[in-house]
Structure formats: structure tokens, C-alpha cells
Amino acid sequence: MTPNDPNITWVEEPRLGLSGKMYMPMFVQGLTTTFKHLKGSLQGKAVTVSYPDQEPEIGNPIIYRGVHRLNKDSQGRVKCVACFLCATACPAHCIDIIGIESPWEDREKYPESFTIDELRCIYCGMCEEACPVDAIELTSLYNLTGRSREEMVFDKEKLLSVYDATKDKEPMRSPEMGGTV
Amino acid sequence: MIEPLIKIAILIGGLMTGAAYFVLLERRMAAWVQDRVGPNRVGFPLSQFVSGLKDLRLFGLGQPAADGVKFILKEEYTPAHVDKRLFVLAPISILVAALVTFAVIPFGDVLPGGVFGDEPIEMVVSPGAGVGMLVVFALSSIAVYGVILGGWASNNKYSFLGGLRSSAQLIAYELPLGLGILGVILATGSLDIGEIIGEQARTGWWFALTQPLGFFVFCVASFAEAARLPFDLPECEQELIGGYHTEYSGIKLLLFLVAEFLHMIAASFLIVMLFLGGWHFWFLTGSGSEATWFQAIMRLVVLNAKIFLVILFFMLVRWSWPRFRFDQLMAFAWKVMMPLGLINFVVVAILDQLKIVSGNDSSGMNLVCALAAWGICIGAWVAISIAGPLVADNRPRRELNSFEIDSQM
């Protein structure tokens, strides 16, 4: 690499004006910004919250990537058709599905067991993207805790119960939103 | 015998508590400036003792105590590769140097006699130390040893770089620090801090008003000496992971951190006493060496309020300015601060001589001298800015061959 290599783009630093060279005007400008933020915070405009006392506001719960849920269809059955697309898409390999023949007319398979290791999950949302029937979704529950590793492996019942707990606040993706029935 | 001991107890107690609470204040200020809430929870954990009671929060005033207990109880790890003796010596020496400085720095003026004995009590640990400023300078130079020893003993590249930078920086900025004070000493004719304040109180002209250039130079240099942003290269977290105290933990780290805060407090004491009139405030504190009780108490209040404001300024500057690059730091010390300090010294000498020769010490003459000093200050500042010594183009140039470029890198 020579200095006159045509592939090198030489970027010239912007030249300082007199106020920049004199430093003091810039200093006053910087302090003004500091004071503005200080004043804002003292008036209670801080952007953070005191967490356990106050819950943070989640901008749009529909697109937030928190704990998973398994959606139910209108008859209360699990929506999943055990196609394994989510498990394939998962970069963390945290989804484990055992599919068996479905007892219902409208689909071939359904998951006998569906477990997600919430500790392995990186909450990327790829499973949600991959699912052809919108069965798996990420909710806006962010404060997930547990006392053991086993407890954090969510099985089908647990995931369905997450749906029951969050379905009112976060409606399932409807056909109007580009989802399936 | 008992009187100095009481003063020492008050001073050390006050300084240590003050340093702890200034850490909390700094954290809260940092949070506020960055639009956060900051540490506001730690108070009395009443529910730990009596079930059913609510914890007292007290705006986080318990945080310093919790931090202190944490530092003391934490594992104090000494890595195997360090020089053990120097590793222990470094934090002790830096804290001792920082604390001993306060022996000659007054923390008030005088208390009138009559209540605590017949004699008026001077509020300084060693009253009448005529070489006060020299002691402060000598001890602030010793503080460099702690930093260098810490960096060297840690036997770690980051620490060593921190120590190295610190030694270069502190030595470079001691010159402008001294030059800034020279004008004050020239105008007062004394090295005694009490007399320097007394002179400002007597004339009513704070040295910041009559020697603005010296004030700026001294302020900037004391920021650098206290290793505060924008001059915190010895410990910049982003580059050096904490610099010279990277390897330290537990109580030894605490000693380093306290010493750093003490440097900042000492710097604000000196700024206030040398340039901002110390305990003096017009119409409020009186100006003589004798004081009534009201005046004595007002002097204490004024002095501490000024120091508090200067420390607040230190903390605000921290969140306003990015750090200097190292070559800019050195250029700033040698090419900007040094000439400005020398100009200040010459101007103060000429104006003082002018006053003596003309035999005119009236307030009109003082005003003219102060205006002249401000004019020269602004003129010198603009002249230096136009010369632009900080704008150094160190980038490899196009016409150089690659070998020369490598040598420049």
C-alpha cells in the first residue's frame, strides 16, 4: 500500500474556526448542554425509571421480543403444526419439538411436547419469523426469573399459559396484521 | 497540645466524610447530566432488623457507607506478578501525601477568643506556617510517586502506561501551576495562605479579578494535577482500563480513589483561597484579622460554599468535555499554558510596580489595573488561539514513501 494508491480516499480534517481555536466559546457551548440536561433531570425528565417501583414503558408490545408464547386457535387447541421450521431457524438451538400425528382433521401433525430453553434463547425472534401459522410469538414479558435451570426450560403447558396470561394485552397476529387464521 | 489534635480530628473526619459524599454527589450529578436517576435507594434497611417496617431510602444517602463497607469487605487480591512492597506502599503514600497537604490549608478563618480559651483560634492545623504554598507544592509532587509506584509495581502494561502518562502530565502541569501562583505571591509578598486571603479581604479585590490570566492558568493546571477530565489520561477507562490502579482491589483501591478525591478537594481549596478570596465576601464577612462571632461564622459558611461551588464546577466539566489526546495535552501545557503563565507574571509585576511608583493605591487605580489585566488576558488568549499551537498535523503525508509513513506511525 503506497500513499498514492488510487484506492485510498484521503479525508481532510475540517479546519477549526476562530471560536474552535479559542476553545472558550466551545467550552461555554458544552457547559450549556450539560446544564440543559441537568435541569431536565432535576425537573423529573430522566429517561430511566426506578425499576422495581416503576415498570418501564414498552414502546410497542407487539414487536417487543420477550418471553415466548404458544398461541391457541379459536377452538382452544395449540396452533402449532409441528413443522420444525422454528427449531431449524433457531440460531441458539433452544427449541425442542416432538411431533406426532394429529387427532384433528385439519392438520397432519401437532407437537406432543414443545420445550424452549429460555436460558439458551437469545431472543432474536427468528422463530416468530419462521412460523408459517403464527403459533409461536414473543411477548413483551421482559422480567423472566427462575431459581434453577430446569425451571427455565418452558414446556408446552407453560408456553400455552403464557398465551392465556398475555392474550388480552397483546392480541395474536390477526389476518389484518398479515397473520394466519 | 489538645487543640491541634481536635483540629486534625475535625479535618480528617470532615475530609473523609466529604470525599465519600462527594462520590455520591458526583454519581448523582453524572446521572442527572446523562438523563438518568442515579443511586437513590440505599438508606437504612429497617426491614432487615424489624419485619414489617419499610426501608428508609433518604435519597441514597447511605450509598457512601455501603460503598465503604463493600470496599473493606471485598477480597483484596494481590496478583502474583506484582512487586509486593511497592504495591502496598503506593496507595499509602498517595493518601498520606494528599492528607498531609491539608495541614497548611486553612479550613476557616479565626474563632474569636473567650469561649474556647482566651486566645482566638486559627482554623488551620499548623497556624503561622509561613511557607504554606511551598509545602502544598512539595506534597503535591510526592503524590506523583504514588501513581508511578502503583503503575510500576502492578507489573502490567496498562498500569505502567497509566503511570508513565501520569508522570509526564503531572510534571508538565506543575510549571503552569507554579506560574499561576507566582503572580499571587508577587502581589501579596507572602507564601502564607492565610496572608494571601487576608490581602484579598483587605483590598476587596479577589485575585481572580485582578489576575484573570493567572486564574485561568491555575484552574486548568489544577484540573490536570487532580487528573480530572478532560485531563484524566493516567486512568482513562476506555484506553487503559483504569490505568495505574487496574490491578488494585479492596481497601487499596479505596485509598487510591479517596486520594484522587482529596486532590480534587485540595485543588478547589487552593482555587478558592488564592484566587476567589477565601473566606471573604463583600459586606458580609468583614475584612480584618479580628472578627466578631457573626463574622467568624459567616467566614466559615462563605468559604465552604465557595469550595462546594468549585467542586460542582469540577463535576460539571467532567461531563462537558472529551479527553485530550496525549500530544494535545503536552502541547497545551508547554505551548499554551507556559506562555500565558509567563505573560501573567510579567503583567502582574508591571502593574504592581506601577501602583508602587505612582503611590496611588485608590480604588480607581485598582480598577484601571484590573481592566488592563483583563484586556491583556483576552488579547493574549486570542493571540495564542490564532497562533494555533494545538493544531498539529501528525498524519502521514501523501508525498512520503511507505517507510517514512511507518516511521511516523
Task: Give structural attributes.
heterodimer, A: 181 residues, alpha+beta, three-stranded antiparallel β-sheet, two-stranded antiparallel sheet, 25% helix, elongated, B: 409 residues, mainly alpha, two-stranded antiparallel ribbon, 15 helices, 2 strands, 1% strand
Description:
The complex is a heterodimer of chains A (181) and B (409). Chain A has helices spanning 18-22, 24-42, 85-89, 126-130, 156-166, and strands spanning 68-70, 95-101, 109-117, 136-138, 153-154. The longest helix of chain A has 19 residues, at 24-42. In chain A, strand 2 and strand 3 (109-117) form a beta hairpin. With 181 residues, chain A is an alpha+beta fold. Chain B folds into two domains: 1-71, no CATH class; 74-408, no CATH class. Chain B contains 15 helices and two strands. Chain B has helices at residues 2-33, 46-49, 63-73, 84-100, 132-153, 157-188, 193-203, 207-210, 212-225, 237-240, 250-275, 293-318, 326-358, 363-387, 402-408, and strands spanning 110-111, 121-122. A two-stranded antiparallel ribbon of chain B has the order 1-2. Chain B starts with a helix and ends with a helix. Chain A binds chain B through residues 1-4, 10, 16, 18, 21-24, 27, 30-31, 33-35, 37-38, 40-42, 45-50, and chain B through 29, 31-37, 40-41, 316-317, 319-321, 381-382, 385-386, 388, 390-391, 396-402, 405.
**What is the count of distinct domains of chain B?**
2
The residue fraction in helices of chain B comes out at 55-70%
Helical/strand content category of chain A: alpha+beta
Largest interface: A-B, 28 and 30 residues
Outline of chain B: globular
Number of extended strands of chain B = 2
- Terminal CA distance of chain B reads 62 Å
Q: Summarize the biggest pleated sheet of chain A.
A: 3 strands, antiparallel
**Rg from Cα of chain B:** 24 Å
Radius of gyration of chain A: 26 Å
The share of residues in extended strands of chain B comes to under 5%
Strand order of the largest sheet of chain B: 1-2
Helix-residue proportion of chain A: 10-25%
